[in-house]
Amino acid sequence: MIFVGTVNLIRNRDQGTFLCPACGVSQGYRLKARRTWLTLYFIPTIPMGNHEYFVQCDYCKSNWDPSVLEMDQANYPDAKEDQFSEQAVNAAVLVVLADNVITENEIRVLLRIAAHLTQRSVGRDELGQICSNAQQNRIEAVNYVLTVSKHWNQDQRARALQGMFLAATADGELGELQLAVLARMQELFDFTDAEYHSAIEQAVEWESGT
Ligand SMILES: [Zn+2]
Predict the structure, then answer these.
(1) Secondary structure class of 102 (helix, strand, coil)
(2) Ligand 1 mean position to 56 CA, how many Å?
(3) Ligand 1 centre from 1 Cα, in Å?
(4) Could you say which of 37, 74, 116, 194 is the most buried, measured as most Cβ atoms within 10 Å of its Cβ?
């Protein structure tokens, strides 16, 4: 009998200091790369997939998307549309994963959200990969959006919020965790109540439209 399995190997790739959004002050960080390996007899032999990078604060141990390292630069260039749509899909996935559970219904809704945001069809395999990366990187939805949304324009912020809202309501009732995440998004995006509500109202049109 051959013992086959997988293991995640995490290596430190870089280190330095950054403005940790959770601590609110400059802290040391480590840039880490995670990769899944196929194991034979418990020995990692073949790498599967690409490296996933994340930044970890040395002090509070919170994990961040690597874009957090650019946050103290004064100018944020606009995100390219394909980069934005990928990030917005990640954000919707993280909202669903906030309660550590993903249901068949949520998968169906996430597939629709991903297709709407990326303007192409997204398969279950691709979505599964995104979910497993998101789960293993352990970046919280709010922390993720806090960093990547610096590059989003107002329209992109509204669309990302709609994706997160639909993801959060996929199972009908909004959980307390997901409600808190959405409320924080309004703050992060600096949306007035009117802007926030109008964005949410438009989300409902996704269902009937494309
Ligand atoms: Zn920190």
Answers:
(1) coil
(2) 8
(3) 46
(4) 116
